[in-house]
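lol forgot to send this yesterday, sorry. struct tokens for the thing we talked abt
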């Protein structure tokens, strides 16, 4: 396996672990036991004499980093983890700082197992007792935990704030080109300039990763936009580190937090969404979200907060609806597509797909995805007695697939529901195409090893390499494409070519969003195996769906 694939595998697990522990521990690492490679958190690299985030020869590094007795104890614990005799352990280490001092730390170690139950990785969350808690050592700023505590404090006394998150994805490139020390100096320079421009109008925090958060009770959104533009102009045209002129592209998200009932995690999720949208879709212009109705009254922070809260409370107020999938040849039932619904006063019934951008920034998203999988299998398994070939289609999001426990969750869910893998089809959603190709290939291969089929969401067809390289069973043509067929000759030619490619490759094609007879008759002239849409039935609760199925 090449180093890029190894690094990606470690980083995928690291990111999941960092999300789970980031509010509790300042330092952490993910360790590939077999290859003796670990990824450490940036804060650990800043405070301890580590060569970088990705560390080869982890055991030798720890022998130099830890007090001798702690290094010896870790080597013994590692043997127990590797042999499956130990799953987790709380311990104490003394870790050498860059100044040579031994810093007392509390350490929680966890074994991370592969789908066969073998310990493959070791995760460690480290809490220092020798540095000031929740103060970022690079910038000297209070960290994101302090930010959330500050925001909770404001909300507790009914005060409001406007918040700016500034950051860039270029730091990975900067670190690779110039080193972590240079990257740290770049972040400090941006923080210094932000502080100079803002003065005493608010408080500045270090967010997770290369993010800065500015929280103000005095400024309004337009003033915060001008503040961001000042920092942005500096990063593009003036920033210089060690005599090297840099041009750093920033993204800025602004959120008006004026409802004390909103959970601070929902505010943070909206900030991340707005910052990411600014950097990736708005050309660096500030993106503003506020507690006012937007996008037909469905894009508010209150709504995100309500959904987040319900996910954390065992996915209350969520339900599934089902739409039949029929064979094109004779309109007989082939499968069923599961769709998520959320209903809560005063918002009414909403499809969370309308808020996907916000939800995918929330750590609770994978929990919701796992609930959908469990719920869909438990609600449809009884149908297999009468329809033994029925294929249950469920969306699989990037956030789920990235979780280190995904494989075990899939196996356990199939087992607990007594659901045959051959009756399940997992549909990769659009964002899955941003995963590392080798990782995605391995996960798809694992899914298929369970007997489960894999479908590609129609939007993934934008990446032809993905279609060619993944061993998928089904390609789904999305509704927007289907509805244009009557008036767009180029779309018809493209569909013909795609159906030909799929047929030659042994891949089935399913048309989504078929709503009228004219479109259905047109689709029958192509090599399309199945279709679904309102022409047959809208998505229905399971009882109504079962009754509808009997009429088909």
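and heres what i got for the seq, position by position
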């Amino acid at each position: 396996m090449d180093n890029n694939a190894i690094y990606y595998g470690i980083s995928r697990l690291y990111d999941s672990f960092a999300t789970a522990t980031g509010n509790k521990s300042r330092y952490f690492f993910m360790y590939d036991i077999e290859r003796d490679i670990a990824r450490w958190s940036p804060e650990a690299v800043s405070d301890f004499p580590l060569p970088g985030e990705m560390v080869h020869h982890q055991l030798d590094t720890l022998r130099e980093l830890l007090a001798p007795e702690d290094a010896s104890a870790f080597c013994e614990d590692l043997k127990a983890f590797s042999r499956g005799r130990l799953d987790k352990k709380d311990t104490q280490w003394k870790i050498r700082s860059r100044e040579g001092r031994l810093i007392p730390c509390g350490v929680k170690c966890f074994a991370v197992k592969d789908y066969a139950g073998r310990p493959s990785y070791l995760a460690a969350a480290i809490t220092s007792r020798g540095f000031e808690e929740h103060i970022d050592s690079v910038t000297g700023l209070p960290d994101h935990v302090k930010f959330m505590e500050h925001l909770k404090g404001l909300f507790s006394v009914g005060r409001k704030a406007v918040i700016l998150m500034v950051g860039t994805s270029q730091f990975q490139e900067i670190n690779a080109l110039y080193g972590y020390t240079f990257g740290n100096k770049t972040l400090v320079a941006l923080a210094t300039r932000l502080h100079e421009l803002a003065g005493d109008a608010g408080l500045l925090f270090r967010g997770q990763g290369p993010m800065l958060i500015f929280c103000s009770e005095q400024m309004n959104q337009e003033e915060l936009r001008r503040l961001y533009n000042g920092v942005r102009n500096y990063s593009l045209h003036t920033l210089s580190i060690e005599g090297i002129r840099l041009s750093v592209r920033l993204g800025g998200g602004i959120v008006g937090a004026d409802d004390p009932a909103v959970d601070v995690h929902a505010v943070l999720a909206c900030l991340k969404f707005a910052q990411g949208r600014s950097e990736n879709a708005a050309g660096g212009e500030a993106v503003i979200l506020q507690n006012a109705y937007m996008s037909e009254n469905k894009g508010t922070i209150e709504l995100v907060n309500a959904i987040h809260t319900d996910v954390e409370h065992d996915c209350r107020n969520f339900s599934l609806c089902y739409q039949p999938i029929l064979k094109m040849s004779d309109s007989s039932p082939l499968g069923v597509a599961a769709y998520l619904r959320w209903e809560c006063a005063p918002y009414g019934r909403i499809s969370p797909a309308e808020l996907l951008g916000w939800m995918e920034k929330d750590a609770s998203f994978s929990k919701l995805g796992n609930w959908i999988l469990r719920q869909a299998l438990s609600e449809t398994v009884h149908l297999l007695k009468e329809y033994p070939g029925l294929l249950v289609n469920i969306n699989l999001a990037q956030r789920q697939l990235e979780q280190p426990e995904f494989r075990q969750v899939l196996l356990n869910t199939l087992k607990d529901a007594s659901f045959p893998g051959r009756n399940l089809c997992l549909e990769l959603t659009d964002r899955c195409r941003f995963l590392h190709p080798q990782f995605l290939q391995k996960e798809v291969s694992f899914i298929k090893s369970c007997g489960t089929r894999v479908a590609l969401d129609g939007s993934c067809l934008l990446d032809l390499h993905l279609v060619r390289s993944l061993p998928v069973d089904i390609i789904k043509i999305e509704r927007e494409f289907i509805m244009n067929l009557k008036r767009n000759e180029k779309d018809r030619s493209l569909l013909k070519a795609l159906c030909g490619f799929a047929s030659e490759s042994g891949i089935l094609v399913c048309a989504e969003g078929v709503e009228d007879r004219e479109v259905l008759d047109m689709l029958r002239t192509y090599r399309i195996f199945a279709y679904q849409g309102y022409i047959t039935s809208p998505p229905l609760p399971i009882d109504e769906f079962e009754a509808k199925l009997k009429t088909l």
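The longest strand covers residues 102-113. anyway ping me if u want another try
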